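Quick one: YibL family ribosome-associated protein from Proteus hauseri ATCC 700826, structure tokens please.
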Amino acid sequence: MKEIEKAQIKLLSDRLDSIRHQMANMQLTNEAEKYAELEKEKATLETEIVRLKAVRNNKLSKEAQKLVDMPFKRPITKKEQADIGKLKKAVRGLIIVHPMTALGREMGLDNMTGFSKTDF
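--- reply ---
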């Protein structure tokens, strides 16, 4: 689902960029009607892009809120990161969030953090 939204945003952004280039090359005196049409389409594209980004951010926020509400969380040590599979097997339901992912950036993480319903 996220991939589809990302692709839609990309397509709309590309179309918006194309319209901006067309408008820049246009002469207002000769092609006023065409310019007005492009201006209208530009406005609708901008609002749609803003809406899609808000939907994507809202989904991230729900996921982030779910993780924050988990009772146990702590940074993952370098030793645990070396054998992450072993850690995941030992702690059922462990969710690890990397700080460089969209979710990690949104949550403001500084290092890999594990979230779980059970103590680990």
